[in-house]
Amino acid sequence: MNESAENGSAMSESAPQGAPGASAAPVRGRPSASVFFAVAFLVIALAAALRFLFISRFEVWLDEGYCFMVARKHLSAILADLAFDNGPPLYYIMLHYWMRLFGESAAALRSLSAVFSVATVAAVVFWDTPWFSRTARLFAGFILAITPLAIYYAQETRMYSPVVFFVVLSMIFLERGLRTGSFRSWAFCALSTALALYTSYASFFVLPAGYVAVCVAHVVRADAVLLRRRLIGIVSAHVAAAILFAPWIPTLLKQPSAKAVQWIRPRWQNDEHRRFLPLLSLSTMTTGGAQYPMYLRNLSIDQERLTRIRQAIADGTETRWQLKVLTKIPLILPLVLMALLAAFMLFMALWRSGGAFPYRTLLVSWVLLSFLVPFAMSFLRPMFVLGRYDITGVPAFAILSGLGLSRMKLSFRVPALVLAALLFVYQYGYMELWPAAKRFSPKAQDLAAIASKGDVILAEAFEYGQLYYHFGWRRDDVKWLTFPRETASHAAWIDYDRWLLPGWHTEHAVPRMALSVEAQKTIAEASSAIPAGGRLIVVRATEPFWARAMDDALGPAVMAAVTSGAFEPDMNASRPDVGIVVLRKVK
Questions:
Q1: pLDDT value, residue 224
Q2: How many CA atoms lie within 13 A of 33 on its CB side?
Q3: Which residues pair with 480 in a beta bridge?
């Protein structure tokens, strides 16, 4: 079969061996080009509005502060820092230049992720392929536009929205290569795959999707010669992507990946409901009602939070009518409705959906691999985090949902769309009515008011990056040290097992003797950097509990430096109520 013939008939999931694939499923009510573009514009505009609205409502937090610290350095320093990180460099380089253009405000930092997230919706809407009708693309774009997890990461200074965009591009060109076999498609597949790998290692998890599609096509007896050519195409594209990624591999092998995921291990080991995590991953990909993990701050809804809000309403301290309505809805109801709706949409997408390409296998494997691979690997080294790596599968879930909606009769489609929208409104109400607590920005502003040029600021690693960001434009006037010192290059990646006794993940975290020795060395390093009469500003940790345990080791070292006569307290400048202690060097 020559290449031109392949363009007309490719692999089929149900076609007998040697037979051309079945034609694409007929499309009901195909919109005209002008109607399609008009609705596509509205869908993309909705996605943009939801991602940029309230983008700076929450203060910059730990991971965002770290990204900011790294990205504002020179490119050579960024690459050097990432040898102590657990991620590739592309996002930090993009953020570096983005900040040069748009500044360092929270909105400016997060807008890079928002732009990539909107671009992902646009890529889905304009994915032109025979099995993906205009109607289905519009529905898929709408579902992706209102997916809370996608909105959450679009408003975070992290690499997750950009990697989703590059994964979608790689899948678009992978699908085109499998369907047409064109060299151009494979070349762009290689490039977009390499960009995804340079953005986040989470993209590794979905790489096998194309191979799964080819294997399934082989099982159902598609054209054997065509399959071999397609397999050669995938392998060639991935080899090319690996060659492009090769310069980073030496750094990847040096990165402290085990330490970076150390905090995950106790959560994984103590999770009694681990077997349900794959289902929970699927629930986070829906448009509302999922049980999001607590670390996804403004997404999470649990019984404790619901009880607090209801009590505040009863006391009269919470008067917003939206919360009064939302809190009357039992938590289980949106979850059940979303599960039923998602199951119905996926059933319609996958049931009797023939086509000229095994797109069902590609999409389903894309969704499943995004969370099943890290989930399976966690039995060897815990790394699975609900609602994080599975973000790469969200677009595929939205595409399957869009396909299902497009195949429904109008009498089912309208109620399904209305229900999806209502569930999103339910979730979005909780997202944006979450109290925007200022945990570190007031403390950083107090610190900035106290500090003078040339001072040395010593902060516990968990608070370091957040204080650094919220300190403001004068941050370069002072010298920053972190405790323990080994975390200086990667913010809060603390070697818990080295510094804390077993059980550090509980509220009874206790420091080891080694941490007390480290505290003494840290104070000595700070002292050597301060001239006589200069000041050391120690920022005592207030949260979380394991940070306070580390502070228990730092406190005696500070007192020892005062007792020895090396420093004297500056009580006029200190703010012990917020954990800021100012010491002046005596000799």
A1: 83
A2: 1
A3: 457
The whole-angstrom separation of Cα 26 and Cα 30 is 9
pLDDT at 9 > cutoff 60: no
Q: Quick one: pLDDT band at residue 24, thresholds 50, 70, 90?
A: very low
Q: Are 408 and 141 in contact (CB under 8 A)?
A: no
Q: How many CB atoms lie within 10 A of CB 9?
A: 18
Which residue shows structure tokens 């500070």? 558
481 vs 86, 351, 524, 525, 539, CA distance in Å? 21, 59, 12, 9, 10
Both tokens assigned to 436: 């925007």
d(CA 161, CA 401): 20
CA distances from 191 to 97, 125, 297 (A): 21, 21, 34
Backbone φ and ψ of 328, nearest 5°:
-80, -10
Q: Match 């769309």 to its residue by tokens.
A: 417
Sign of the dihedral through C-alpha 555, 556, 557, 560: positive
Contact 420, 287 (CB under 8 A): yes
Could you give the residue ranges of the DSSP H alpha helices within 472-587?
496-499, 513-528, 545-563
User: Phi and psi at residue 327, in whole multiples of 5°?
Assistant: -75, -10
Q: What is the DSSP string of 60-99?
A: P-HHHHHHHHHHTS-HHHHHHHGGGSSS-SHHHHHHHHHH
Q: What CA–CA distance (Å, rounded) separates 305 from 314?
A: 14
Q: Token digits for 355?
A: 């086509």
Quick one: pLDDT at residue 21?
Answer: 36
Taking residues 446-467, what's their average pLDDT?
92
Instruction: Give the single-character DSSP code of 531.
Output: -
